[in-house]
Design goal:
Elements (H helix, E strand, L loop, with lengths): L10 H12 L2 H13 L3 H29 L3 H8 L3 H43 L3 H7 L4 H20 L2 H28 L4 H9 L9 H14 L6 H7 L7 H32 L15 H13 L3 H37 L3 H21 L1 H31 L2 H9 L9 H25 L1
């Protein structure tokens, strides 16, 4: 591994960084939202199965591409290619993932800014600054612009410091904070009236619903989105892993942490909704379904917190700090995707590349802020419903159909000598070649 590129200094550093990338608003917000929209525990059950049976194999494909190439997403995929058309195709896929990551960060930064403003609001309320508190939780051009800028500055600050001193160091700080806050909030919600009904709705699956087409597609899409697949992020992170590490177990550990935190997030938010109902807050939409999406996070839960009196201010602060941390652990990985490309392909120093790209993405965020009524949803749908499934599918195609099987095995064996005789190697190549591309194509087709 080139010294100039840097790398993760420890196995735990990679696990926390990769889990941090995977654990973002897609888990803390997206997963409970999807659960609320798709029948509660039935969705949870299907999600857990698909995360390990389909998302994990695709996740492994991206990690392997990165560690084999020891470079940015484009260069890594081109090293796998042996013909001119394959190299051109590799550039298209690798660069497409980088663009996808940049687009996601452009709208992600805005939503993360909202989380930060909602986290500060309880502090203003405690200080008696009512006008400032109201401004923080009211949609306005000024608030959106200021907090998007603050969040992007935080992201740029971390990435400027590199892999070990930036991504790894801050992931080691932020991930334990995130998990600790999540568990404390779950324990507190469990003590409130109405929570037990919510736990029952979340944990008792209606088996008759698990084969519903819409539920299956939604669960598969959530599994791929929450693991940051299709954005070149895991290719980059894979390139920073030592050749001595066992990728099979590393990938499994990251997937386990990701789905565990998604599960815990649902264990917090779904019961919290029923607590809100016990306090008189409407949690069901007109069609009888649980309220989900932005209305859940920015309407139902704040109403719950406000009904708790003084304690609610501290709970609201903890919840939105949790959401902000989750957003930050993902945003640093998304910024790293384009930065690594510019640093390695154009020879620009990391500090300059990070600043220039960060400002460029912030300019796109500003454009969205000024046209938020239609651009926010447009960019989000373009990147997550179209970009991610296509790129993730093509990465699997690369590993399954273009990368020579003997080279794939040789790469995995560097950290796992006996992998050739394992259950993983007997199943994974065929999964990656046939099942994963087909399943992702199905998600994409459904999104159309």
């Amino acid at each position: 591994m080139s010294v100039s590129r840097g790398g993760f200094s420890s196995r735990m550093g990679f696990i926390l960084a990769a889990a941090g990338s995977a654990v973002g608003l897609g888990n803390i917000w997206g997963f409970p939202t999807q659960t609320a929209s798709n029948g509660g525990a039935a969705f949870v059950l299907v999600y857990l199965v698909l995360a390990f049976c389909l998302a994990y194999p695709a996740f492994m494909a991206e990690l392997l591409i990165g560690r084999y190439g020891q470079a940015n997403a484009v260069t890594s995929m081109q090293k796998m290619s042996h013909k001119l058309w394959q190299k051109r195709f590799a550039f298209l896929v690798g660069f497409g993932g980088i663009i996808c990551a940049a687009l996601i960060l452009s709208f992600y930064g805005i939503i993360a800014g909202w989380m930060m403003s909602y986290a500060i609001e309880p502090i203003m309320s405690l200080m008696g600054m009512t006008d400032a508190a109201n401004w923080l939780v009211t949609q306005s051009l000024a608030r959106n612009f200021i907090f998007t800028a603050l969040f992007m500055l935080l992201t740029i600050f971390i990435i400027r410091r590199g892999v070990e001193q930036g991504i790894e160091k801050w992931s080691k700080r932020l991930m334990p904070m995130l998990i600790g806050l999540l568990i404390l909030l779950i324990i507190y919600v469990f003590t409130l009236d109405g929570s037990r009904e919510g736990f029952a709705a979340y944990l008792n699956p209606d088996i008759s619903r698990v084969f519903e087409p819409d539920l299956l597609i939604s669960a598969l899409g959530q599994a791929f989105f929450s693991l940051s697949l299709g954005t070149s992020v895991m290719v980059i992170y894979g390139s920073y892993i030592s050749k001595k590490e066992n990728l099979v177990s590393l990938g499994a550990q990251v997937t386990l942490i990701d789905v565990s935190i998604a599960f815990l997030a649902g264990l917090l938010i779904i019961p919290a909704m029923y607590v809100a109902q016990a306090q008189g807050v409407a949690i069901f939409a007109e069609d009888g379904s649980l309220i989900s999406g932005s209305n859940l996070v920015f309407t139902v839960l704040p109403s719950l917190f406000s009904g708790m009196g003084m304690v609610g201010l501290f709970v609201a602060f903890g919840f939105f700090v949790l959401m902000s941390i989750a957003a930050l652990t993902s945003s640093i990985s998304m910024l790293e995707a384009p930065v690594s490309f510019i640093v390695e392909r154009k020879g620009l120093p990391r500090e300059k590349a990070t600043t220039y790209i960060g400002i460029g993405i912030f300019c796109l965020s500003t454009l969205i802020v000024f046209n938020i009524s239609f651009m926010l949803d447009f960019i989000a749908i373009l990147a997550t419903q179209y970009g991610q499934p296509i790129i993730a599918m093509l990465c699997c195609v690369f590993v399954g159909w273009i990368w020579q099987r003997s080279e794939v095995l040789a790469e995995i064996k560097q950290g796992h000598d006996t992998v050739e005789h394992s259950f993983f190697w007997k199943v994974w190549p065929w999964y990656t070649k046939f099942i994963c591309p087909s399943a992702i194509a199905l998600v994409f087709w459904h999104s159309l």
